[in-house]
Automatic annotation (TrEMBL):
The family this protein is said to belong to: Belongs to the cytochrome P450 family.
Chain segments carrying region Disordered: 1-20
UniProt-listed InterPro entries: Cyt_P450_B (IPR002397), Cyt_P450_sf (IPR036396)
Protein name per Swiss-Prot or TrEMBL: Cytochrome P450
Record lineage: Bacteria, Bacillati, Actinomycetota, Actinomycetes, Kitasatosporales
Amino acid sequence: MSDPAGSPSTPTPPPGCPAHQSAVQLAGLEYQQTPSQLYRTMRREHGAVAPVLLDNDIPAWLVLGYPEVSYVTSHDELFARDSRRWNQWDHIPPDWPLLPYVGYQPSVLFTEGTEHQRRAGVITKALEGVDQFELARECELIASQLISSFSGSGQAELMSLYAHALPARAVLWMCGMPQDGTDTESLVDDLRISLDAGEGDDPVAAYMRVGERIAQLVKEKRERPGPDVTSRMVQHPAGLSDEEIVQDLISVIAAAQQPTANWICNTLRLLLTDERFALDVSGGRVSVGDALNEVLWLDTPTQNFIGRWAVRDTQLGGRLIREGDCLVLGLAAANTDPQIWPESHVGAENSAHLSFSNGEHRCPYPAPLLADVMARTAVETLLERLPDLVLAVEPEELTWRPSIWMRGLTSLPVQFTPSMH
């Protein structure tokens, strides 16, 4: 196992190290077209907890089983979120691709214990103040504006023109950003780049700009609070500092934007390619809800989440997990665990999936409900406005992004009868 920084003096990992046990290379795997097959194979060969190698051959554990993921997420005293516990930091190069996700930041994501309860409590309270009917109305408005921008042409690429833009604008509206103007437009763009950089994008610079704009927003809301998430966080009796609020707002915005965008797109793909839905989708709203839920089971936007760090040596799924080891939560694998679906039939009516995780660090209530409002409104409004929407390519020509972390299409080209309104 070579040292990522290239120095030959790195000691060989001890025999207990996952690197010695035919660990699976997670980095660079282009298996994204059918990850479910990969998870099945891994489960067969390694059981519920598999040794894996992240970028630069950094060892970690991928937790594949539904009971095991549930156990890890509900036992914070054993598997904690503060990544400074990691026993691999000596081997992590400064330009490591996963650093944005695991490098410790003073945000709610990395807090533990009472500090986590304090920070998460502020977010929960602030989100609870969002009126779901008002959010649905706003999403309908945003959806209509976006659809009007391409409805005259008879064709569109929905990933960039619709699915990404709608949740970004909706969450910024919830946070109290003015909806008109280039300011919000450029913030929406920077958000996309920082979370999901394409060729030639600079995600670090985009992330810095997002941070600066959100800091400005917090300052504005301290001076002139309004009926929005940011103002409620500012005014919360827990008395968070501006820096804490900025960090936590960015976490909320990022969590709302990209997973919801992929949830919308993955649902549209299902509705447009699966004949079970094709028959009644134009008339029946029921099947949109079914499709949204089925996607959370079978094509969940967050496939794998990094991660948790072992507080002490412990056992999990028959493996010895050492203190400081990194665990990657295999949410997608857990959702399709054959132990919970013996007939390999996933019930659309059941919502016990782990797509929003669970335990102390799950997506804070009522965030999943708000995400559902955004995704459902986006899908329903599009189908109402463009009832003869069809794919512009063959279903098998659609490609998934080469990522083991998220499940999203590279693009979703569609065509429809052009409309002038």
